[in-house]
Every structure is written in structure tokens, then in C-alpha cells.
Specification:
The chain is α/β, with parallel strands linked by helices. Helices cover 41% and strands 21% of the residues. The longest helix has 15 residues. 42% of the residues are buried.
Length: 212
């Protein structure tokens, strides 16, 4: 997207409040990977959850808690966000971010590898947001579909993976993982999906049925 349009959208529709600004600044000061969602992506996720009146949401990949705050703020007071993070440092910073936002009672952060945590969760989530390591994305797709309720949203960041997804010369495991996820999302008969070209691309899908 043209940077002028991106800036226009952010300033008009996704301006950060002091809490979000401090969380993003903490990411930088703690030298976390610069892979958190952007403000306009966070607002889009927030809006999507409001549209389906989500109460029970799963996030795979907490990082420092920035996206989790956008997600949890869309939930009602009795709503619940379960977020998974394998890196202890990231998990600690995310918990502090949730507390700073006053959302600690609405969010459960589970530490550990996602593929070990996911089998322990009960199905019925209204939305699953995936923003984690790219090589195992096909496995995350399978678990996301298994844990989603009918009518729930499957969401995945970095659909373009900085251009690698459409680069025929990039055969890295991460690029292949992104491509496979996108192909699964486009072809699975249980899902109606597309890619929204915001920042690095966001896959958005609705689970329309449980069986192929």
C-alpha cells in the first residue's frame, strides 16, 4: 500500500491511545522482533471481532502483547482471549502489557510451543488469529479449523511474507509454510476466505461448515 494511504488510514481510523503507544515503544526498547501488527491491522482485527460479537478468541503468537490488546478490547467484559507464546521473555512482556491495559482478567496467556498447547484446548472459539512462526503454518491451519466454531473467523497475518509468498525463487521453509497455508485457506471447502492487502497481507476466512 502507498505509505500516504497507510498513514491516512492510521491517523484517521487507528490512532493509538497512550497504552498502545507505550506497548509498542516497549517492543522497541526490549528489542523484540519488529513483527507485531500495525495499528491499522490491529483496528481491522478489532472491528472483525466486533462484527461477529466474539466472546472466545484464540491467538497463536503473543509476542509483546500489542495485538492481544487490540483483540481483547473487542470482547465483552465476560469475554476471553487465550494467547499462546513460547518465548518466556515475550510472554513476560505481554503479561505486563495486558496488565497495563487493564485486561489481565480477560486474557489467559499460555507459555509453550503452540503445537503442544493446541491439543489441550477445547473447540468452540469464535475466532483464531495466527501470527507465529511460518514453517508450521499448515499445522496451525488444521488446528485453527478444528478449534473454530461454525461461523467463526480464521485470521492469519503475513499472507505475503514480505513478497516471499509470490517469489518462485524462494523455497525456504518459511515461504513454503506461508504458501501452503494460503493454498489451504483458498481451497478448503469448509472455509470461505480471501486476503486483505493491508500491510503484509491478512488472510480472513469464515468457517461455513464442519465437514468437507
Amino acid at each position: 500500500m502507498d505509505e500516504r494511504f497507510e498513514r491516512y488510514i492510521t491517523e484517521l481510523f487507528a490512532a493509538e491511545d497512550p497504552v498502545l503507544s507505550k506497548i509498542r515503544a516497549r517492543h522497541e526498547s526490549e528489542k523484540l522482533p519488529a513483527i507485531n501488527v500495525s495499528p491499522e491491522e490491529g483496528k481491522l482485527l478489532h472491528l472483525l471481532l466486533l462484527l461477529i460479537q466474539a466472546k472466545n478468541v484464540l491467538e497463536i503468537g503473543s509476542l509483546g502483547g500489542y495485538s492481544g490488546v487490540w483483540l481483547a478490547r473487542a470482547l465483552p467484559a465476560d469475554g476471553r482471549l487465550v494467547t499462546i507464546e513460547r518465548d518466556p521473555k515475550h510472554a513476560r512482556i505481554a503479561r505486563e502489557a495486558f496488565a497495563a491495559a487493564g485486561l489481565q482478567d480477560r486474557i489467559e496467556l499460555i507459555e509453550g510451543p503452540a503445537l503442544e498447547v493446541l491439543p489441550t484446548l477445547k473447540p468452540g472459539f469464535d475466532a483464531v488469529f495466527i501470527d507465529a512462526d511460518k514453517e508450521p503454518l499448515p499445522h496451525y491451519f488444521a488446528w485453527g479449523m478444528k478449534l473454530l466454531r461454525g461461523g467463526g473467523l480464521l485470521l492469519c497475518d503475513n499472507a505475503f511474507f514480505h513478497g516471499a509468498a509470490v517469489d518462485p525463487n524462494d523455497d525456504s521453509p518459511n515461504a513454503e509454510g506461508v504458501r501452503k497455508f494460503n493454498e489451504l485457506a483458498s481451497r478448503d471447502p469448509r472455509l470461505v476466505a480471501t486476503i486483505i492487502p493491508v500491510r503484509d497481507g491478512l488472510v480472513i476466512g469464515v468457517k461455513t461448515r464442519d465437514k468437507p
